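Let's practice the habit of predicting before peeking. Look at the sequence and jot down your guess about where helices and strands might fall. Then scroll down.
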Amino acid sequence: MLTHHRKPVSLSLVSTDLPLWSVVETAGTLYQKDSDRFHLLLHEPAIVDRIFPDNSSEQISILPTATKPRLLWLEVSPYRVVMTMQGNGKYSYRHCWERGMYGLSRYWLQGDSLATPEQLRLRNFTRQLTLTGKPQPGHLRLEYELWSEKVQLGRYILNLEIHH
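Done guessing? Here is the structure:
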């Protein structure tokens, strides 16, 4: 039987070698698939462009404001994590991580035309995958490297906190 629970969630992504840090605080629905397999569905808040004063030396954000809700869907187990973002119409991605293995990170970009979306495929290497909490997960820590062919594009830490 599929059971689900609504929980507050914190999802953060940090690069250990690049100036990248992002946090999403939202509510999520946790579905228990098996004794150690879960699905977590999150509604990511919309991206809002920052407004800078005219005398600011910083540049204006180039990310478009998302008008449709973006759904993040995580399939979580102690050995494997799959994260899919869909629903904003122009951009989506899917990451597959498995402890000690190379996985795929795919990004789809949809232009204004109705043509087939372009796909960008990268590899990732999962250095560490730790899932804690019983009977429901409370914390996921995922450390990985992102690669394009033989060029490393950074090392990242993904932290997921499911508050009970």
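How did you do? The chain has a mean pLDDT of 84.
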